[in-house]
Specification:
Blueprint lengths: L1 E4 L10 E6 L4 E7 L11 E5 L5 E7 L8 H9 L10 E5 L3 H7 L1 E9 H13 L6 E4 L9 E7 L2 E8 L2 E5 L18 E4 L4 H8 L4 E2 L2 H8 L15 H18 L10 H13 L12 H8 L11 E5 L2 E5 L8 H8 L2 E5 L4 E6 L12 H10 L6 E5 L3 E10 H15 L2 E9 L6 E9 L6
Parallel strand pairs: 1-4, 4-8, 9-12, 12-13
Antiparallel strand pairs: 1-2, 2-3, 5-7, 6-7, 9-10, 10-11, 14-15, 14-20, 15-17, 16-17, 18-19, 19-21, 20-21
Helix pairs in contact: 6-7, 7-8, 7-11
Length: about 450
């Protein structure tokens, strides 16, 4: 992942500070012109400085969701903004569409469209595709968070709180005027040059956080300002989500117990499918999207022992899921239904809705291509009228992921059934059967 910090002034004559990261830690950081930045560093995320964003809370009327939301926001904010709403980029909170259905208050981030265009233009000219635009600092969910940044002769103190992001005055004696922000309860972060001053002034020990580390943390924000004229296509968003999931599975501490288990294989399979150069019809009820949707719901210590997929229904055995997890509600928002079937078995269902997105191969051509893929040891392919049955024995997860990706991209063969069991004698290996549907045949 490449994280690029946009400058306060659109003229980036000094270059763009940027960070190469695995999504959780700083691998390296530097400052350079747009033309020197790598276009092959994975997902590209632009960070909007806190000084370029304003945060406003609005009360949305019922039934203001969907395409109406932007015009509703412009009407609500017209008298509260110093600039014409048409000249501002208005981005509601990530859950605003849900709130707008029934009505309720939500936060809106605003920034100047002209500045954003000019700040991004050199990156676009250099061939960089910015996939996400995130705020450097965003409102906190509950307790306030205080960031002390810069150097002693040019310091800034910014507090993130549930109602927005506030720049505090340089004189700490004036902070008492912000009592409603409960600064004494705030988590405290400071850049290296400010640690000593913070210790002496606030009599507290801050968490050391460099600017690069702050930008990495920003990249994990649920806020995405890449909307409107900066919005991504459905395919780009899906690929970005899969990239993020794979980065989490590879590097996030919470997934340590899962890395070489079921979910690691599932994420690798889904990620490689997203990068496939051949457009293949796919719906939320296909195997890979269901696997990707389920992955965030699984707890840290999960070690699934069996996986079955048939009739657009995924059944996973050997896991315990917290039904209070916020990810459960997100499944429902995607049109998916998760239910328990016993103490350690969960069923995820989706409705099939497949749109044709490319010219299908003939059945015979697809079967010939499958044969040319040279199945790995531990795989036996048996052709049927409209399908191919794949028997697996002690097959490593990575090998299976690679072969399935090639089957999808080169032969347009879709998995419509899966009955897989984790091998008791090898890590990240599976045995069982897969049923692939060949193109040019009935679903």
């Amino acid at each position: 992942m490449l994280i690029i910090a946009l400058p306060h002034s659109a003229n980036a004559s000094a270059g763009y500070p940027h960070v190469h990261t695995d999504g959780h830690s700083v691998l390296r950081h530097a400052t350079g012109a747009a033309a020197t930045l790598s276009a092959h560093a994975g997902e590209v995320v632009a960070v909007v400085p806190h000084s370029r964003l304003a945060w406003l809370r609005v009360q949305l009327p019922p039934a203001s969701h969907g395409a109406r939301l932007q015009s509703v926001l412009q009407g609500l904010l017209e008298d509260r903004l110093l600039d014409d709403p048409q000249h501002l980029h208005l981005v509601p909170a990530p859950d605003a569409q849900h709130t707008a259905r029934t009505g309720g208050d939500t936060l809106v981030a605003t920034c100047n469209k002209t500045w954003l265009r000019e700040a991004l233009a050199p990156l676009h000219a250099a061939g960089l595709v910015v996939q996400r635009i995130v705020p450097e600092l965003s409102p906190s969910d509950d307790a306030p968070v205080l960031h002390v940044m810069g150097e002693p002769d040019h310091a800034q103190s910014v507090v993130c709180h549930p109602h927005g992001v506030t720049l505090l005055p340089p004189n700490t004696a004036q902070w008492h005027a912000f009592g409603e922000l409960k600064l004494t309860d705030a988590s405290l972060y400071a850049e290296p040059a400010m640690v000593t001053r913070v210790q002496n002034t606030l009599q507290r020990q801050p968490v050391l956080q460099s600017a690069a580390q702050r930008w990495v943390q920003s990249s994990q924000s649920a806020w995405d300002l890449a909307q409107g004229e900066w919005a991504q296509t459905h395919r780009q968003r899906a690929q970005r989500q899969l990239q993020a999931l794979w980065q989490n599975l590879r590097h996030a501490p919470t997934y340590q117990a899962l890395r070489w288990g079921m979910v690691a294989w599932l994420a690798l399979q889904a990620l490689m499918v997203a990068w496939s150069p051949v457009p293949i019809p796919q719906s939320r009820a296909d195997l890979e999207p269901l696997l990707v949707a389920l992955a965030p719901v699984l707890p840290q210590a999960s070690s699934a022992q069996q996986l079955d997929f048939v009739n657009h229904t995924l059944r996973v055995q050997g896991v315990t899921i917290d039904t209070a997890s916020p990810h459960i509600a997100r499944l429902a928002e995607q049109g998916l239904r998760l239910s328990a079937d016993g103490a350690d078995t969960w069923v995820l269902q989706g409705a099939a809705s497949v749109a044709s997105t490319g010219e299908a191969l003939s059945r015979d051509t697809a079967w010939q291509r499958l044969q040319n893929l040279s199945p790995a040891a531990g795989m036996v392919l048996t052709p049927e009228a409209a399908h191919v049955l794949v028997d697996l024995q002690q097959l490593p997860a990575a090998t299976l992921a690679q072969w399935l990706t090639q089957a999808r991209s080169q032969a347009q063969a879709l998995p419509i059934e899966a009955h897989l069991t984790r091998s008791p004698s090898a890590d990240a290996a599976w045995q069982g059967t897969l049923l692939l549907r060949l193109p040019g045949t009935a679903p």
